[in-house]
Amino acid sequence: MFKIVEKSFLQDIVVRMVIEAPEVARKRKPGQFIVLMIDEQGERIPLTIVDSDSEKGTLTIIFQIVGKTTAKLADMKVGDHILHVLGPLGHATEISNFGTAVVVGGGVGIGVAYPIAAALKKAGNKVISIIGARTKDILILEDEMKNVSDRLLVATDDGSYGFHGFVSAVLQNLIDSGEKIDIVFAIGPVPMMRVIANLTKPYGLKTIVSLNPIMVDATGMCGACRVAVGGKTKFGCVDGPEFDGHEVDFGLLMSRLRTYADQEKQAMENYRCESHGK
Ligand SMILES: Cc1cc2nc3c(=O)[nH]c(=O)nc-3n(C[C@H](O)[C@H](O)[C@H](O)COP(=O)(O)OP(=O)(O)OC[C@H]3O[C@@H](n4cnc5c(N)ncnc54)[C@H](O)[C@@H]3O)c2cc1C
Ligand code: FES
To answer: Which one of 53, 61, 274, 278 has the lowest number of neighbouring Cβ atoms within 10 Å?
Structure first.
């Protein structure tokens, strides 16, 4: 059992949670994730490890409420226990001194981008971070990203804060300004990562994306998380979650993510009815 020791809402539907999981906290590296299962009836869901404290034996996750399991997790309280926390899983981000690294984070993907930006900075890179959200109210981790970046650029879709438009337009402006960029990391909604990868490809600018296919066992056995990369089948859980963005078949990923949309909608409605009835 894994105890929840902190919980706060970063905004309406985004939760930050600190969980006691000493073994995972000790071994984890940036870019890795856990799979958690709330209780015996629960499904297994993957979530990125945003931060960890090996002395306290804790790890931090940041998640967006999108369906039944994330809603149920958000309803848990400090002191409650999660049945299983499995990890750390997946390959860690390949970190070295590339030169200038641009880290692009969109929405809750900023939580995943943060440990990567921090590790790049620690390795001696000049880190330029671009973060974006639909509107100012739902932008997360601005201060944290500022602390690990040489330069932070912010965009909102509605123009309520920072640049008015998408993070991809900010990246385009940066390229047009003549900034010498050695590598780009893009983490966020699949359409965002696709646009960034398409944007950087003509410049031959190496672009790493962190994929979020549906995962079940997360050990490479079930095939649920398969993605096509460079025409070959890869498993997000054991071969990823990071891949060369120029090689990913994003169309296939998007259609596979919608596979269980009807069942997910029903499960969320049932959970809302059950929890309101309590
Ligand atoms: C490696 C990895 C790291 C992730 N890190 C984060 C994170 O740090 N923060 C965060 O908010 N989200 C993260 N996700 C996405 C998160 O796992 C899903 O939002 C969550 O599983 C949704 O479950 P649900 O029951 O609440 O929603 P559901 O209603 O079941 O599903 C909503 C949508 O979430 C996706 N999804 C559903 N089940 C799974 C599953 N088992 N595995 C993956 N995706 C699923 C599907 O696209 C689905 O349409 C990550 C996904 C992966 C693969
Ligand atoms: S989740 Fe089963 S093979 Fe990756």
So the answer is: 278
Is 227 strand, coil or helix? Answer: strand
Q: Which ligand is nearest to the CA of 237?
A: 2
Ligand 2 atom closest to the CA of 222, numbered from 1: 2
Q: Is the pLDDT of residue 39 over 70?
A: yes
218 Cβ closer than 6 Å to some ligand 2 atom: yes
Fold assignment, 2-89: Elongation Factor Tu (Ef-tu); domain 3 (2.40.30)
Which ligand is closest in space to the CA of residue 211?
1
Instruction: Report the pLDDT value the prediction gives residue 72, as an integer from 0 to 100.
Output: 94
Separation CA 189–CA 129 (nearest Å):
17
Cα 184 from Cα 202, distance rounded (Å): 14
Minimum-distance ligand 2 atom for the alpha carbon of 218: 1
Q: Where are the beta strands (DSSP E) in 49-206?
A: 51-53, 58-64, 81-82, 84-89, 100-106, 126-133, 151-156, 163-164, 183-187
State which of 112, 264, 271 you would mutate to test the pocket of ligand 1, scoring each by most atoms of that ligand within 8 A of its C-beta.
264
Mutate to test the pocket of ligand 1, among 69, 116, 187, 190 (most ligand atoms within 8 A of CB): 69
Q: 277 pLDDT band (50/70/90 cuts)?
A: low
Domain chopping of the chain, boundaries: 2-89, 100-257
- Residues 6 or more apart whose CB falls under 8 angstroms from that of 182 comprise 98, 99, 100, 101, 206
Our answer on whether the CB atom of 67 is closer than 6 Å to any ligand 1 atom is: yes
Mean pLDDT of 108-135: 95
Write down the CATH number for the domain with range 100-257: 3.40.50.80
